[in-house]
Design brief:
There is one protein chain. The chain is α/β, with parallel strands linked by helices and about 230 residues long. It has seven helices and 14 strands. The chain folds into two domains: about 170 residues, Ribonuclease E inhibitor RraA/RraA-like (Glucose Oxidase, domain 1); about 35 residues, no CATH class. About 30% of the residues lie in helices and about 25% in strands. A hairpin with a 2-residue loop joins strand 11 and strand 12. The relative contact order is 0.22. The mean pLDDT is about 90.
């Protein structure tokens, strides 16, 4: 009997942001990036750091059926330097999507981070891997490999739309997505955010007992007029 090929859909490979653009997001707090986008852009708070540190890179997406990781395996095989593997599972908690072995292969291929709204396993080995891993949690249950799934297609992960080619960054506060079309705009706004944060930090260090926050100032003016 000839086995049918598992159903996987591969979207075309699009243009990636340049390494110089990606580098400008590294070592920038995710809270700064969110502020530069008007106060939004983060995945569900439950997608949290499991192992590794902060990261910034380019999203390479995949969508996996609940409890199945065939599409993720295919995405690893497509991955390259500066990629962040972003795997949507619909929040499935029936099994871990992956463990240390596949993620070690991904790291060997130049992947700089892994994000999923599902689960992972092999927590102790992941801590030794030196690859940032962000997930909903940990489970020893193993996945199947039957599909269906997609690679590089648009997904929703942690309640946030993600496209391959978007910039994605993570730190202890969570994971943030910058749409490909808004990278330049976000970087321009980010300079203003950094400057404002530095000025307010200096005020606090110099003994300030309040901050010049616009909303508070407007509320005080209304109170005085009242």
């Amino acid at each position: 009997m000839i086995e049918e090929t598992p159903p996987l859909f591969f979207a075309p490979r699009g243009e990636k942001p340049s390494a110089k653009l990606i580098a400008r997001f590294r070592d920038v707090p995710t809270s700064f990036i969110v502020d530069a986008m008007g106060g939004a852009g983060a995945l569900d708070w439950r997608v949290r750091r499991i192992a590794g540190g902060a990261f910034a890179g380019v999203a390479l997406t995949c969508e996996c059926a609940g409890g199945d990781n065939l599409a993720f395996i295919a995405a690893v095989a497509e991955s390259e330097g500066d990629d962040v593997l972003v795997a949507a599972t619909g929040g499935s908690t029936s099994a871990a999507l992956t463990g240390d072995l596949l993620l070690h292969v991904a790291r060997n291929r130049g992947v700089v981070g892994f994000v999923t709204d599902g689960l992972v396993r092999d927590a102790a080995d992941l801590e030794a891997l030196a690859l940032p891993v962000y997930a909903m949690g940990v489970s020893p249950n193993s996945p199947s490999r039957r599909g269906p799934g997609t690679v590089r297609a648009d997904i929703v992960c942690g309640g946030r739309a993600v496209r391959s080619g978007d910039v994605i960054a993570g730190d202890r506060d969570g994971v943030v997505v910058v749409p490909r079309a808004k990278i330049e705009e976000t970087l321009a706004a980010l300079e203003g955010v950094k400057k404002a944060e530095a000025e307010m930090l200096e005020r606090v260090r110099n003994g300030a007992r309040e901050l010049p926050l616009p909303g508070v100032a407007r509320a005080r003016k209304r109170r005085r007029r009242g």
